[in-house]
């Protein structure tokens, strides 16, 4: 009887713990304000991978076609060379024979030496030409092989970065996102998108000055990246620099009008959205 009561308490405890855990998970899902992933980012990365694979495949096809053409061309040249050499030999022998009839048999040795030297000289010249062509062909082949390897490496890097972006989209804590963005930046230090998203996560951690530095780095790399201006506008708004925030907000909307729809939903713009200049921007874009 005592064992049955203990077992009953254990089962009740497990059920209660499971129910509490499910309620916490559901509560956390309900509190989410932003989507866990950005379809535009994922689509951009997938498009880049597809383009790299197509370029790599086209380069391989071109390489095989070039090799086939070169092999055929070299075979034709060898055959032509052999035919020309044989014909030339006959001509030389015929000429030498005629010459012997004219000048007599006393000059046979000299004539043989001259014929041999002429053949050797011509053969050496042709061999040198083909060696030079073969060397150029080998250099071209080596260059194309390096290009193929670079493309393969770029595909591997892109796949790695793509998986990191997926992890970042599923990460719920700002500090966790920052760690993943750092991994991306270790692979590609000039990845402006990672810098901008890292700035957003750092701002969520309450580090406005750090976030401002990150957006400035992103804009030094690409001064036409709309998201960097948008993130810096949020940072300026948090720092109370309304004029700078409005300027960056105008620039981001000029580059990408989709940000008009997000302004009123951003917590950092709660006070800024009431500003007269911001209201004019919103009205102007709404009527455009």
The figure for the number of domains is: 2
What is the helix/strand order? HHHHHHHHHH
State Rg. 38 Å
Mean pLDDT: 77
Ends distance: 78 Å
Overall strand count: 0
Query: Which structural class matches the secondary elements?
Result: mainly alpha
Question: Beta-strand level of the residues, as a percent range?
Answer: under 5%
The biggest beta sheet is recorded as: none
Task: State the helical fraction.
Answer: over 70%
Shape: rod-shaped
Low-confidence runs of at least 5 consecutive residues: none
The number of helical elements comes to: 10
TPR repeats: 226-259
Organism: Halarcobacter bivalviorum
Transmembrane segments: 89-108
Protein name: Membrane protein
Note down, in words, how this protein is organized.
Keywords: Membrane, Repeat, TPR repeat, Transmembrane, Transmembrane helix. The chain crosses the membrane at residues 89-108. It comes from Halarcobacter bivalviorum. TPR repeats lie at residues 226-259. By secondary structure, this protein is mostly helical. The protein folds into 2 domains: 37-170; 172-288, Serine Threonine Protein Phosphatase 5, Tetratricopeptide repeat (Alpha Horseshoe). The chain is 84% helix and 0% strand. The chain has 10 helices and no strands. It has helices at 2-31, 39-103, 108-170, 174-187, 192-204, 208-221, 226-239, 242-255, 260-263, 276-287. α2 (39-103) runs antiparallel to α3 (108-170), α5 packs antiparallel against α6 and α7 (226-239) runs antiparallel to α8 (242-255). The model has no long low-confidence stretch (mean pLDDT 77).
